[in-house]
Amino acid sequence: MAHYALVGPSETRRPRLGRPVGGSRSSAVGGVVLLLPDGEPMSARRASARAHAALLPLGRALVRAGRAEGLAAHVVRYRGRGWNGADAELAADASWAVAEAVRRYGDVPLCLVGHGMGARAALRAGGHEAVGAVVALAPWLPEDDVAAEPEPVRQLVGRRVLIAHGTNDARTDPELSFRFAARAKKANRDTCRFEVHSDGHALRQYAAEVQALTADFVLGALFARPVARPVADALAAPPPLGLRMPLAAGFGDSYRRS
Questions:
Q1: What is the pTM of this model?
Q2: What is the H or E stretch that residue 252 is in?
């Protein structure tokens, strides 16, 4: 059984997978997406209901797009909202959620999609053997620190990885996600990164485009659907081109028409 380091009141809490997005499923599940909400660097408070709710529209969009393959989605409910230093509680909860999804659904393709602090958790937990793809939206990543180990990337080898970041994000530095992507690309060529011009941390301005990009990438990674040309180009391009790919306005419209 996995060991979880705990802080304060979270000792009495447990992570939960919760109900599938869109309600109960009656058909067979062909793949699973676990959505990991944003959090805070240090906190013993309960997980944020607002951060959980913020991922529901993306979850519904993914389920609609993957209906033919039986895609199921869950927004993970953490024990608390804090990463809490070396305890990395959100990453531990993400790993627990992967194991629970495997227990519940069996050997089906699985993708982690996280936002902010949840994106860091997704990248950390992406090393689980059941995970085939990781999407990190506006990831919160630590500043470079010569006294500390760099954020790991080797766990992502063999996975498809997409990072998307707003260029005007005032909460998480997009330059740090570029540096992380550059290191990840060296270890795993199936890594790409998109820049959402002028958008902020919540990625609201181009929400339709971000949803479409995520759906295109997830369905391609889990079910071998052909991906859109910009995604294929970003995966194939050498750094820095494939790591600074602009997300074009209207990407969502073109995806919905396809």
A1: 0.92
A2: helix 251-257
